[in-house]
Amino acid sequence: MLLALYNRVFEETDIPLLQHTFSFLKENQLRVILFRDFYERLLPHIDFKEPPLLFQSNKDLPPQTDFMISLGGDGTMLDTVSYIGNSGIPVIGINLGRLGFLADIPENEIDGAWQGLLRGSYSIEKRSLIHLDSNVPLFGECPYALNEFTLHRKDSSQMIKIHTYLNGEFLNTYFADGLIVSTPTGSTGYSLSCNGPVMFPQASVFVITPVAPHNLNIRPIVVPDDYVVSFELEGRTDQFLCTLDSRMEAITKDVQLAVKKEDFEISLVKLDEHNFLKTLRQKLYWGADNRH
């Protein structure tokens, strides 16, 4: 079994867990390929008898890679997606961060996670992505996101106008700080914090959620994900922010933007004892009553 390991940052308190992880992998004769920057940061802490295979981009991942392991929080998990691309390599998230909604395996279950992979005690969930089209190059070779696409004001405290269209037909002008178009996976992220609804990951929809709208009668709306959502920007400044998950680009009002469903999906590994409803209850305290 060949495992790719990705991490973008770790704390000193994470080192014992990382040392334990590599000891387990070695004892079970599991081959690894490491993200180059991760390997270089590990060198002072891990005794590699010989240099492992390394990758820098999704082009470096061998086609026989069985799993991509994301070691970190949800932000690390979102970064990992850009290295997977359309390779079809399943991703499993081990949480070294705080909430861990996507990276839902806590540190105290890491040994069980490795054993589950070895035994095949897991399922694969397909997650849809959102794709960005624009008339100028944006986001390099990764114009897609697992959670959301957003538009924001930049360099000003003034609200902006976002004229929004569904399949070319006018939907609404959002006079707001910004606008979120989220996938079902992203519905429990930024969109939820702006009062968007929770969607099951298998739903074939987008959620369009305004950020601090001027009109209080403007609410999030759920649309089919086979729609194309396009935008025109208007504001008192020349610059706006456009994001895909945690990546961002500065744009002008002359940039033409449209989002649609990506033509490939991401495969997430779910251990047998983990599912969406359990994660809702544990991570978001769904239905919890703390009154005493």
- Compute the average pLDDT: 90
Please mark out the parts with pLDDT under 50 across 5 or more consecutive residues, or reply none. Answer: none
- Oligomeric form of this entry? single chain
Q: Summarize the helix and strand pattern as letters.
A: EHEHEEHEHEEEEEEEHEEEEEEEH
CATH top-level class of the largest domain: Alpha Beta
**Structural class of the secondary elements?**
alpha+beta
What would the principal axes of the Cα set say about the shape?
A: globular
What radius of gyration results from the CA coordinates?
20 Å
Report how far apart the termini are: 50 Å
- The CATH homologous superfamily name of the largest domain equals Probable inorganic polyphosphate/atp-NAD kinase, domain 1
CATH architecture heading of the largest domain: 3-Layer(aba) Sandwich
Return the CATH topology of the largest domain: Rossmann fold
